[in-house]
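Rotation project, supervised by the postdoc (A.L.). Task for the rotation student: set up a whole-complex structure prediction and record inputs and outputs verbatim in this book. Inputs entered:
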Amino acid sequence: MWFRELQLPLRRFIAGRRGIVPADLDDVAQEVFLRLLRYQREELVTDPRGYLFKIAANVASEWSMRARQRFPHDSTWLDELTDDRDATDEMDRTQRNAELHRALGELPPRAREVLRLHFGEGLNHEMISVRLGVTRRIVKRDIVQAYARLRLALTATAETTLQPNIIAAAASGNKP
Amino acid sequence: MSASSAEGRRIRAAAEAAGWVQRLDSDDLSAQERGEFVDWLRESPVHVAEMLRMGRLATALEAFGDWAKIPRSGNLLPDVVIPLPTHRWTRSPAASSRAAHRKWYAGVAAALAPVAVCALLLLHQLSATAVHTQAGERREITLADGSVVRLSPGTDLTIRLEPQVRSVKIMRGEAVFHVAKDRDRPFVVDAAGTRVQAVGTVFSVASNAETVVVTVTEGRVKVTPANAATGNPGREREILLDANERVSLSAQGIARPVRRIEASPTLEWGENQVVFENARVADVVARFNHRNRVQIRIEDDVLAARTVSGVFAVDDPRSFVEFLQAIAGAAGTDNGPDEIVISATRAGASPAASPR
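Outputs recorded:
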């Protein structure tokens, strides 16, 4: 899938783990944007997604380092960056799942089904169109619609109300 | 800066980012599209931020473990895992939430078959399970043995898993079978008296009142025509069908010659390639309309009565419209998103044609 190349630090970062407040994502984006402008266009065109993710991963790592210097006592932080399993993030994930669950429930039924087939069963767009008996164009339209709607539906909760809860949950889970 | 215009810009950027996600996900982008993507990203930090948010969303969707609990609407029920106990079993409290986050339903039968099948068979071997699909509805069923049955729209069949045999009876319609290998338990499909037997293979059986069509994409099956099966069992005229072969049989059990067919990737995902031989345009259109949301309407009676031959992808009505435009000079116009109206045949077009 298109986001597979997201490097782990970036994945963690943009997944909203560990108390990274939403404003930070915009700050990271700002920095990524500036760095993108410094590259030659021809160079970026060879693999725009790769460059975007690589640059963002670098910025995210630098951000993380800075955060770590700010909170040096939080020793598990860096370890987790190299640990692909998120054992300590159960609460975080449960909560994110609940939010997603609600947002998915508000999507039009077919768009929801398309996402389920794509992420739940790993079907590509063509397989989805065959399975649902609709054209590929409709599948594509549903996917765009689903992403856009989910993004907006999750903004309010994920970045204002949910985020502090995650931080609190993660923080309390961290100190036995 | 006004909050509402900033918000509007965000919403627009989010929609555009969603469009890029879809394009990144579905195809390899052309050089020109990659250029457009770069230009878009370098237009605004908001675009970069929205792309990163889409990455976060996709990551969360990938990790999402509760698809089974998401409500589904009536017309979209492609998945039925026949052995419900397997289903529940995987969701027992013992299953850790990590396991739940795995996409367990994707391969539930395959993953659990060695452990669970024996118990399940006891529960299910005695009762046949009836499955129906309505017009426009497709459905995929994973059986307890790991075999997968894909039903085309408008199909009625029953499935029975017994210790010695796995049997399916097709009352009407069409299904593709991905048969899990089990040498000791043949997989037998019965359609209008025709028996199709496989051990581990991929094949499809289509049946209406008059004809049964068997197509093999992988492995080999044994086809027993209706009269042979019901008549003298000692003198069955069996037909062995290999990969990429197809045979049509009439209800009286008369088999037409075995034909080689083109192996097609879509065949594996449902019998989408349908063969028409001297079929009336009106009948072909009916077939398309049966399968698709987008409906074709022929306004020209002369064209509707003409006959055509060819192999058509019945999930792609536009391809047939293009075909009609090419052979008959007909004009196809979109009437809203879900209807294509075909009118005004050009006089003097050839009376019969074939797309391939």
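Student's summary: Chain B touches chain A through 73 residues (CB under 8 Å).
Supervisor addendum: The first strand of chain B starts at residue 79 and ends at 81.
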